[in-house]
Every structure is written in C-alpha cells, then in structure tokens.
Amino acid sequence: MRLSAPVYHLKRQARLLSRKENVPLHEALDRMAFKEGFGSWSLLAAKAAEAAPAGRLLAQLIPGDMVLVAARPGQGKTLMSLELAVAAMKQGSRAVFFTLECMHADILDRFRDIGVDPAVFDHLFEFDNSDAISATYIIEELGSAPRGTLAVIDYLQLLDQKREDPELMVQIRALRSFARERGLVLVFISQVDRSYDASRKPFPDLDDVRLPNPLDLSLFDKMCFLNKGEIRFQSA
After folding, report:
1. Mind listing the pLDDT tens digit for each residue in 156-191?
2. Were 58 and a residue from 16, 65, 87, 201 both cysteine, which residue would form a disulfide, CB within 3.0 to 4.6 Å?
3. How far apart are CA 182 and CA 225, in angstroms?
4. Rounded-to-integer distance, Cα 179 and Cα 198, Å
C-alpha cells in the first residue's frame, strides 16, 4: 500500500494533531495510520520500513564507498541516512552516527519514526556528537572499525566551519583514502542550496549542493537526492 506522504511527514502531522486536539502522541499516530489503511502506527511504520529504498541503495554500495545524501531541509535526508545504517546493521555491520547537529535523544526518536526499536541495535550502533568532529577525529574514532562499518556524517558543510581544521577538500580526500584503505562506507548528509527550484527540476543534483568553499564532488562514488518524498540515486 502506497502512503499518501512520507513517514516523516505523517509523523509531523500527528504531532500537530496531538497539540491541536490535546491527545497523546501515540493516539494521534494511530489516527494517522488508520487514515492510511493500517490498524496502528506500529504496523504502518513496519510496512514502510520494509519498502524503504535504503535497502536498494545499500545493495549498490561496496566497502570504501563515499556516499552523498542531499536535500533541502525537511525532505528526510537524516531519516534516509539512518535507514541506510539500519539496513547495514540488519546485515550484521556496525554503524556510527557522527553529528554536530543532533542530540542522542533526537536520533533515538528518528529510529522510532522509521519503525525501529533502537535497543535492538545497541551492540552495533554508536552515536557521537563531539564538538571535535572533523576528518582527523573521524579517522581516529574509526581506526579499529571492522570492514563494512557504515558511518554517517551529519553534515558535510559543518566540517568546513572551524578555522583550525584543514579546508574541506583536504578533509574529504583524507576520508576517501581512509575509507578505501579500511573498507568502510562513509555517508555524508548534505545541504542543498536555497536557489534550488523544484518547479524547474524534480530533484536537486550536484550543481545544487551548497559549497561555501571548493570541493571536488567527484570524490563521492554514489549520490542520493531527495525531494517531496521521492528519491533519485546516482553513481559517479
């Protein structure tokens, strides 16, 4: 059954309904699920997880790949990246989420948004929101990570904000070499420039990635662009 909107949009509508009608969030979620033809939110979330495109993207990745997940705000790029992490963990791989944006509780909520109990993956998932996150930090933290580990970096442009860190191009080249050497998959969440006009083209592309400073985007092997609940995969 095709949903009328992406899961994260339905969850947002449920939160609004919960506040508007002063009902518990779980009740609002179940109401949204009923409108979509499901008996409960948990059933809807589980079905959506089965159909998630992350599994298809993961099947196209190989150890050493650099992946870009790009979209305008509110289009689900964080959820897509977490779905990739979950798909990898279901195959027994480790996953690490590096972020300069989110708190641990936020990510646990995002897991639940996609119908996943984070406790199931306690032994495989690691969250890191250190203020020191940079290419050097990531390489140090993943130095002993087993081959096949998938790491999400949230987000690309924040690696370019500290004056004391090397320029973004240098950091991404270092991470690419490290990923190749260690057999890791690195997934970078990326902003899309506000000049992107969805009325002119249905998906953003590499030309729309926001880059305050120069970066050779051919350093990424796979790209995933999101807009209005739809996804476009692209290989370099």
Report:
1. 999 988 889 999 999 999 999 999 999 999 999 999
2. 87
3. 26
4. 33
C-alpha of 71 from chain center:
10
Give 135: exposed, middle or buried? Use CB within 10 Å, 0-12, 13-18, 19+: buried
Buried b (16+ CB within 10 A) or exposed e, 200-234: eeebbebebbbbeeebebebbbbbbbbbeeebeee
The answer to whether the CB of 31 falls within 8 A of the CB of 40 is: no
Q: Both 227 and 165 in a single domain?
A: yes
Into how many domains does the chain fold?
Answer: 2
Domain shared by 46 and 146, yes or no: no
Q: What integer pLDDT is reported at residue 9 of this predicted model?
A: 77
- Give pLDDT, residue 41: 87
User: Which of 52, 22, 17 is CA-nearest to residue 30?
Assistant: 17
Find where tokens 């998906």 sit.
203
CATH number at residue 62: 3.40.50.300
Residues 6+ apart with CB under 8 A from 59: none
CA 116 – CA 41 distance, rounded (Å): 12
- How far is the C-alpha of 140 from the C-alpha of 231, rounded, in Å? 33
Query: At 28, which helix (H) or strand (E)?
Result: helix 25-35
Q: Which of 182, 198, 204 is nearest to 68 (CA)?
A: 204
